[in-house]
Amino acid sequence: MKFLQSNESILFFILALLCIFLSFYNPQFYSIQNIHSILRSSSTVMIVAFGMTILLTSGEVDLSVGALMSFVTVIVMDVINISGSIALGLIAVFGFCLLIGLINGLVRTVLNVNSLIATLAMMLILQGSVYVYSMAAIYNTHLIPLFSFIGQGFFLNIPMPVVIMLIILPFFVVLLNFTRYGRYFSAIGSNPDAAKLSGINNNRYKVIGFVITSLLVGVSGVILASLMDTGQQGSAKGFELIVIAAVLLGGTSFMGGRGTIIGTILGILILKIIDNGIILMRIPQEFQLIVPGVILILAVYFDGIRRKNSD
Amino acid sequence: MALGEKIVININFKELKIESVSKSFPGVQALDNVSMKIASGKVHALMGENGAGKSTLIKILAGAYSKDSGDISFDENKLNIRNPNDSLNYGIKVVYQEISLISEFSVAENIFLDNFPTNNLGIINWNKLYKDTEELFNRIGFDLNPKSKISDLSISQQQMVEIAKAVFKNASLVIMDEPTSSLTPNEIDKLFTVIKNLKQNNIAILYVTHKIDEIFQIADEVTVLRDGQHISNKLISESSEETIIKDMVGRTVNATFERPVDISSAKTVMKVKQISSKNKINNVSFDLHEGEILGFFGLMGAGRTELAKAIFGYDKITEGYVEINNNNYKSFNTSTMVNNGVGYITEDRKGEGIVKDMNLRENMSLPSLKIFEDLFIINKKREKNAADDYIKKFSVKTPSSERLITLLSGGNQQKVLVSRWLIRELKIIILDEPTRGVDIGAKTEVLSLINDLAKEGLSVLLMTSEMNDLLSLSDRILVMADGKISKEFYRGNVNQEEIFKASVS
Predict the structure, then answer these.
(1) Which of B314, B344, B358 sits opposite A190 (nearest CB)?
(2) Are B420 and B430 in contact, with CB atoms under 8 Å apart?
(3) pLDDT for res A201
């Protein structure tokens, strides 16, 4: 019985049901190409969602991740085109992401602007300024094979984005579950006054949360640029909503205090498989937006119920 | 109240009788057989220390609490107050300390907020609104433009609007809870004029205050409560400041602890020099010695909690510095203080103490996680052992250290919060109202724990409004009023009445 009560096992159960249902409906579901495609697109979401899980656990949110990710695809393509060096492209990307993360964090903590508003504003700023940077999409003219490998390549028959995600994953599982920093993020999200009165520097950890999230957006943005072979100004539009929906579906609380990386991964897989199912079942594509919207409401509703039960 | 049923109010009453009213909360007898009579057209002052039962009595009259036993009646007609609505229907109105007006609305709009005069289409009749307001003001002697915006008014004018709002319909009894706490002397005079006008309208006034000098200016009668019991009832003309203070403080200290004699020759562990904060604290200085229990006494709003929070780095200090471990800190946060061996136990356990998403173990280790780390990973086994030690030491009632903190009782949660600091190396502990909400039996237990810790060399800043805790433990007492230290007393050289006088000055 206890197994059924845990949030992760419920999600796992839903995930299994979805897979069984889809494989009966369309055996194509289990084709290696389809699995690869699901995992590849899940990975970019997961990488950013690790950061978002930390942020939501500490009671904050970042709506600017989609706009930043689009910007990253443009920067990385452009800098590598000009310099011919992947290293310089990565330095430019992570420098820029660090800056944006710091700004988000400082606007939240020093100016004391609610993060929902602060990062919504940052989203608008980035969406506008990416066109100041370049009016047109930037195509791959450097043609360095290693760059294409990042998003399109395979390692031991596993898509590279998945490999990158799997390298990052244990770090965050450990961080959130086994280090004092994980506890701090929970305490800050659950009761900021109690955290502060326990000698925790709330603002410092909030800034760290925003910076980590932005840096992870850098990773996902580079993968996306490699996958598309282009830097595109609107390539990750709406990405933030899928990330947040998945994290909340995974059992992390929007009110802060509770977060789970494993739940987040299951949440993303569920959303991505539903997405895939909509295509496989030839349901109109508009439902790829409608379904996550409905799920988001349900996830927050269930979070409210869980919260009530635990009080 | 069923729909259509309407209580008929006889506003013409001689007195509101409170007879043998009792109310208890788990572990506390808040009101014990209290009786008093409030005459119409008279101002009746209600006095007592914090925790004497004044607020409980107000809340029962206002319908926020239900009484356990006893009767409330207008002359011979018993009142049946089941909820705040019943109380309002009987004409019992409370004017609280905090202003709760809509600052962007006009005076008239605020007064008629819940029943604007309208025409048949439901459109507001503005002329009537302003005329009715003006009539009301004439009746009670206010001088205020009904069209003024609340945000343009002074605090005393806003308070008048609150009063007008309370009395514009069928007021029988107006309860004023510390009405002068934010007023200047000039404004207080204006308030008193208003009160005199209310008296002429045959309204009974229950005037709740800490300030003794005021009641001699405005009250006709005074009732003193102490520890939930009715102590005295006198006409003002037959009363004096001394007798009232005696009645309020009254009880003798029931637990005194042996304290080492000369603590002030011990070495200084913390120096606080002329600190001020935006949050009330004004130029406070003191030294704290090793093993000393330094008591801070003050009434509600004197700035005890604010001082504690400023010293601990929760609120920023704007002037002065804190010296600890040979370091001068002008700008510091809570982590600075915790790293210097200072701990803090809040008076607001639920709001600022427990982390409700965490279990007992995680709540206990929160400030001390560093000591449980192996490299970067928390060693859960060591952490759990430490938690188990303190569960045993303080006999915390819980099946295990893994139980969610919210599932523990208040007293057991408090034990966890104390352990939170003892688990680590601690030099100074700041205790804000450590015995608030603790039942009488456990109170002595808490006090003797504080005494034991101090004997082991821990220095204690004890912020309290409980005279008993203060006198039985403190080596030295600093009395606070208005964010400042108004007087210093030494153990063995203390007089309750003088402490009280210093705190109301």
Answers:
(1) B358
(2) no
(3) 94
